[in-house]
Amino acid sequence: MGVWVGRDRTARRCYGFDEIALVPGDITINPNEVDTSLKIRDLKFNVPILAAAMDGVVDTKFARKMGQLGGIAVLNLEGVQTRYENPEEILDAIAVASKEEATKIIQGIYNQPIKEELIAKRIKEIKEANVPAVVSAIPQRAEKFGLIAQEAGADIFIVQSTVTTVKHMSTEYETLDFEKFCKLMKIPVIVGNCVTYKVACALMQAGIDGLLVGIGPGAACTTRGVLGIGVPQVTATVDCAAARDFHYKQTGKYVPIITDGGMANGGDICKAFASGADAVMVGSAFARTKEAPGRGYHWGMATPHANLPRGTRIFVGTTGTLEQILFGPAELDDGSQNLMGALQTSMGNVGAKDIKEMQLTEIIIAPSIQTEGKIFQTAQRVGMRK
Length: 386
Prior knowledge:
Strand content: 15-25%
CATH superfamily: Aldolase class I
Helix content: 25-40%
CATH architecture: Alpha-Beta Barrel
Structural class: alpha/beta
Number of domains: 1
Shape: globular
């Protein structure tokens, strides 16, 4: 399968969110009566949306609020939250600094070592609100930090890197044995990032409890430009969801697929679920909330796979509260607010009573879906981020 790109070389056609559309169902359902819940082992979340493990997005206060609203916020165990006793001072300094001053601050803050006692402290701060604590680390620190996090009461541990495989080879450092690690951990382990069927199957066979899908689609991620690596998110999600379904048939264990990145609005999130996702991970939408510690900025070294040079700072602005981003009311016309309302309405219109039925939605290739008949919207910038 594929098209010829040259002599003896074929390439498979892959698709992103802008190239597809969802077909309305033969029946429709009241959006208030659809089930959007996500299950990760024995944990249930009514909001199947994760806030990305970025220093400019999630701190303990944000995680508590997100948990109270029914979603998941992932705390980065290798960022400012575990390097500084009072990370708010650092974040406030960056928020008010000029571009040049902010660059110097960011270039220096990650030279401070991670304090292991702060890992436990941050987790306990989140748990004080009686919400799940979800934390993230790279594979090289996963075993050590995972045990600390588990002992401190974390509910889910995420191992995240740019490209994750079961068979990572290196003579310079000891690689993480995912199968051994999953058996060692008593709490659910989510792993990422991955975009292919074969790797997804291998990771699931290793015993993971969730899979992050996406290499390079994030707003602050430069992997595709710098390394040329990545698969458009619709195709990546479909392929990894097929691995999930195969693994379930073989073992009886259902491993949720979490599409990570590339979603600019509610429509993209709906398409991710229709492509096979059980949940989505979002950064940009939450970076704009008034509760975000980054005060409306994406900034360098936010996640292990962001690949931003230290000092990079992208202002995205604040556009509402966390509750408004998730549940509305929407004050903007670009689909960046009321994400759960968009998902419920879309599910109702395609006739899906739950996420599993949403995954069966008919998808069509529609490259003109963003522009067809939109001359006045384009001229007036209606429905577009201003």
